[in-house]
Design brief:
It is a single chain. The chain is α+β, with helices and mostly antiparallel strands and 600 residues long. Among the domains are: 39-127 and 486-533, Immunoglobulin-like, CATH 2.60.40; 540-565, no CATH class. 40% of the residues lie in helices and 18% in strands. The protein has 14 helices and 20 strands. A seven-stranded mixed β-sheet has the order 11-10-9-8-14-15-16, sandwiched between helices. Strands 4, 5, 6, 18, 19 and 20 form a six-stranded antiparallel β-sheet that branches. It has a five-stranded antiparallel β-sheet with strand order 1-2-3-17-7, with no helix packed on it. The radius of gyration is 32 Å and the shape is globular.
């Protein structure tokens, strides 16, 4: 009897361990599949329905976020969707039929066949939060006061539709890149993200957010301003959109070197210009060769010391960083641009005209060869001759392709950066939208707005354009209604075993004829199919290892490192003693003397 007891205890321990591992494996599987998987993007053709993202992490449960736009690009409300069918996207049929029956159907927002597992609701009502970064141009050169006020009004309109649970930040760029924070002494204005004290404070704020403890870097808590919750990044997304709208009212318009994309060398590199430009850069005085050399030397010295340097980031980089660092899994994530798309020195042509490269300087009216000749002419003759010289110089510059080569180089740099930005955005399920400001009467180029159009189209967003005669507020309001007005679809696939490796879905929607635009006849819309791989659990051994390490980390955080080490030694010694005991019992059972037979 005594020999049987250890084996019973061992079997009991093994059973309990097995149950614990099964539970651990399940927890790892579900936690690793928590992030939504980005959907493919679709072409922007109005009216349209598109699937913006699809989440298969809880398979066979399926979650979709979709946008439905009318012929004007305005979101269509749920009450105007007479029927919504979710179809198998791997089949060609774009409407529900015998060849492609609906996986789930809704009429006026209610699931048919009494499907309690199926839900269709506006994004906010479905509990899907919004993480948004608004990127706004704030340079002063060529932007007159009227346009500046229109931009401020558009920013206020952008923040107006945001609701409770939505989080936002504002990136304001000119010669410098500014952002809103909740840090003490930095929360009453937009701050320069590249200042050393700001970098250090934001690094400390991120560490404090990851610690899970109380947040102490913000201003003193009051009745109207309670302390932030643990885990809050004070340099990340903000919960008070009204506060950011107020900050935008006093945001500075300054400079002539917008850093939307930060293409090419910094402002002080002479290779950027045909000659030393006139004017000034905000906070750095007039453009002079001495200041160029000083700024360049300071930057190179800081880089050699391993320190972060100025003029090394862009507004797009900063917006992506905020969302990637502080965006919540499962939330809707978006970047909205309000910009003319210009980047770098805005007076490029003027500077080249003031400092024409050889041989084009022969046509410079201010050149030594032409000053004396013009002085001998009458006023009318001078006016005509100056115009002819300027026209010839422009033709020479175009013939020499000075600016064309410069544009080509910048477009190549943008292509390389855009590929990284689009890849990051699609991997993190971030959609970009843009309201492009077309400046009439200014020497702008179509490719500047095309850059914004590209980012929006490749990440599943939309692009709208306004000019000086049309207030941007209407386009921004429509864009924000699209960003906030998505529909959430949720259902459980009733035949998951029939799906092998990949799942594909498309939406088919029948609209209320009353809202049909005359120029867009037809009330049936169908989305492009979206196909994703089904989630796959990692190998069993890796899951067991992850469970073990996760458990050890949690114990260390709970009891502290010193106690954790002591517990570790105690468990190790206990395990050794238990192993020796088991070994002794096995040896005793195998080689021990058999009891003598009893006599009758």
């Amino acid at each position: 009897m005594t020999n049987a007891r250890p084996s019973r205890w061992l079997w009991l321990a093994a059973a309990l361990t097995g149950l614990g591992l099964i539970g651990g494996v399940w927890s790892v599987r579900t936690s690793q599949a928590a992030a939504p998987i980005p959907a493919q993007t679709t072409a922007i053709v109005l009216p349209q329905v598109r699937i913006d993202s699809m989440d298969l992490s809880g398979w066979p449960k399926v979650k979709l976020l979709a946008t439905v736009l009318d012929g004007r690009g305005a979101p269509i409300e749920l009450k105007h969707l007479l029927r919504v069918d979710v179809l198998d996207g791997s089949k060609k049929a774009t409407v529900a039929s015998k060849q492609n029956p609906a996986l789930v159907s809704f009429e006026k927002g209610v699931a048919l066949d009494r499907r309690k597992d199926a839900k269709l609701a506006p994004r906010a009502e479905a509990g899907v939060g919004l993480d948004l970064v608004l990127v706004v141009q704030g340079y002063a050169s060529t932007v007159e006061p009227l346009m500046q006020q229109r931009i401020r009004d558009a920013v206020a309109a952008a923040f107006k539709p945001l609701g409770k649970g939505d989080r936002v930040n504002l990136i304001w760029y000119g010669d410098r890149v500014y952002q809103a924070t909740g840090l003490k002494n930095f929360d009453t204005r937009l701050i320069d993200v590249e200042k050393r004290e700001v970098r250090e404070k934001c690094k400390e704020a991120l560490m404090q957010a990851h610690s899970g403890g109380p947040i102490t870097l913000g201003p003193p808590a009051t009745k109207d301003n309670p302390p932030p919750e643990p885990g809050t990044d004070l340099c990340g997304l903000q919960g008070d959109a009204g506060k950011l709208a107020a900050l935008a009212k006093n945001a500075p318009f300054e400079g002539a070197f917008p850093r939307l994309f930060n293409l090419g060398p910094p402002f002080y590199e002479l290779s950027r210009y045909c000659g030393t430009p006139g004017g000034a850069l905000s906070g750095f005085g007039n453009f002079t060769k001495e200041e160029y050399s000083h700024a360049k030397q300071e930057r190179e010295d800081a880089a050699l010391r391993g320190e972060p340097v100025d003029f090394d980031t862009s507004a797009v980089d900063q917006a992506l960083q905020v969302l990637l660092r502080d965006g919540k899994p499962g939330n809707r994530k978006a970047i909205v641009f309000l910009s003319d798309g210009r980047d770098g020195w805005v007076w490029d042509y003027t500077t080249c005209a003031e400092h024409p490269p050889a041989p084009c300087n022969a046509y410079d009216p201010a050149g030594p060869a032409n000053i004396d000749r013009l002085a001998a002419m009458s006023d009318r003759q001078q006016l005509v001759e100056r115009h002819r010289l300027q026209t010839d110089m422009r033709a020479c510059m175009e013939r020499e392709q000075i600016l064309t080569r410069r544009v080509g180089l910048m477009q190549k740099l943008f292509h390389d950066k855009a590929a990284q930005w689009i890849g990051l955005a699609r991997a993190a399920d971030i959609h970009m939208y843009a309201v492009g400001i077309h400046r009439t009467g200014l020497p702008t180029s179509p490719f500047e707005l095309d850059r914004l159009h590209l980012l929006a189209a490749r990440t599943g967003g939309t692009f709208r354009e306004v000019d000086d005669n049309v207030p941007a507020i209407s386009a921004v309001s429509r864009t924000m209604s699209e960003v906030t007005g998505q529909l959430a679809v949720e259902f459980t696939h009733q035949a998951p075993d029939d799906v092998q490796e990949k799942f594909s879905a498309r939406l088919s929607i029948r609209l209320d004829p009353k809202i049909e635009a005359p120029e867009n006849p037809g009330t049936q819309l169908s989305s492009e199919p979206v196909t994703l791989d089904l989630p796959v659990s990692p190998p069993l051994l890796k899951q067991l290892g992850d469970v073990g390490w996760s458990l050890l980390v949690k114990i260390q955080m709970l009891v502290g490192y010193e106690v954790y080490v002591i517990i570790g030694w105690v468990l190790a010694v206990g395990a050794i003693l238990l192993a020796l005991l088991i070994l002794v019992l096995i040896v005793k059972k195998l080689f021990g003397r058999k009891p003598a037979a009893s006599k009758a």
